[in-house]
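Review session, final week

We close the course with one last complete record, chosen because it touches almost every idea we covered. It is Phospholipase D family protein, a protein from Aquincola agrisoli with 556 residues. Go through it on your own first, then we will talk.
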Amino acid sequence: MGSFRRLSLFAATLCSAFLLQACAALPPLPPRTASRAIDPGTPSPLAQRVAAERAGVSPQHSGVRLLAGGEEALATLIALADQAEHTLDLQYYAVLNEASSRALLQRVRAAAERGVRVRLLIDDFNTSGTDDALLRLTRHPKIEVRLYNPLPAGRFSIVTRVMASLHDIGRINSRMHNKQLVADNALAVTGGRNLGDAYFLQAAEANFVDLDVLVAGPVVQQLSATFDRYWNSELAYPADTIIPASAAASEPQASAPSALPQARAQAPAAGRTAREDPAPAASAPPLPPAASVPLDAPSGLAPETVARLREQVDQQRKAPLKLQWMPARLWADRPSKSLQQGTPSPDEIMFDDFTGLMRSARSEVFLITPYFVPGQGGMALIRDMRARGVRVRILTASLAGTDAPAVHIGYSRYREGLLAMGVELFELRAEPGGPQPPRWGGVHSRTNLHAKAMLVDGRTVVVGSMNFDPRSENLNTEMGLVMRSPALAKQLEGLLADIMRTGAYRLDLDGEGRGLRWTLTDEQGGRSVSTREPDVSMLKLLGLKLISPLAPEEML
């Protein structure tokens, strides 16, 4: 089919979907039995591993390990799924139908085969093309899938889904940006990564520099409490009440790497209770039995990647957890933020806690955020810090290295003002073969920044999902861990220094009031200077300049 016919067919389909479904609304929330995390004192192999490492440690302290490398992060998630004995709770903004996600979900399904209760909560914005796979997962008697703040109509593409819900734009514009996996309420991973190849350095063309943390101790119970709050909220719909049953009528082969893992129809001996999981839709066709899936089952991962993952997973099962123990707490928005009209109230959001920590800084703030639109409030905060002599460093994405050019428009309006205050401003470059030092995974590909973190006074570290922009402040729900440890701060500082040494432009004013300069240092210490946006075509710059007046800051 020629490109013109394809475009015409898509346009016709789009118009039909809009005309037929433009008034689609959320269905009534069906009766659900509330479920909760297990008691943190429940015996399990994971709990025993944590207890073995925390001997002599204050019971108020939590264990933390940074997960900077992409494959290390994926191996850690797989290892937790493999070792879970009672429960797995997963909450993510995006679970993409890609090789790394399939590899993890195969292990999650294998856990369900052992009788582990699995709760999977996904923001519905990025689920296009996964309806059939999600329905198959829900039919496993130990797996329940819920969609947060769903777009119920026009589900065959993101465009049609959005257009079918335009009448409810205020609701659908607020998304659940949280990211966490909790195993047996004993160990958890949270941070900036969604589930998809680019987050684990498995994409062929472009990967994300990202950051998660493995945690144990009291902060895990805080993560579980936040998960329960979202899971039982009025915006968490059982997937089979949103996805048409016909979505799974055509069953792909279990070995096909293009599909998420199939679910097993037969219940394990442990079964499921109504309290644990609502019954599956009566109209759902039965599925053939499926055995537990080994790590090397077809998922789309390269054989050499599978071999490395198997080695890392085996090592993580046997080796010490290597946790650092420290005071830690969770900041998390409440689900009610998604229902708020206008500016959320302070008790619903973590942004005020985040900026409050910045205000408390005495010597230095180092902010790492891929999407940085400070607004007038943020500029006033930074101006106050600089007036008190606080050093402010910011690492964000370059125009060539962002996956959200519209956000870069908002950010670019503030660069000269920030530099005039004395802020040290860096932009991660995105050249092919660009920066990926060994401690960040060693992959040579185009790189985009996705990590969200902050260092304050060399002793406090924040890692989470929140960007410093209006969307994170007012629209999306976010979460972040606050950890107090000079050793952890020094470790993260070293990781950032690795990637910034030759992988980030330093910006400054040209000294003559004519604009900006981007300076890049190479491996030999030589410097190259550019006076225009690096690695970006003039055509792209012109296009962004034309749409700049149409990019409202509050929507970025």
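Two points worth writing down before the exam:
The radius of gyration is 23 Å.
Residues 1-22, 250-259, 262-293 have pLDDT under 50 and may be disordered.
Good luck, everyone.
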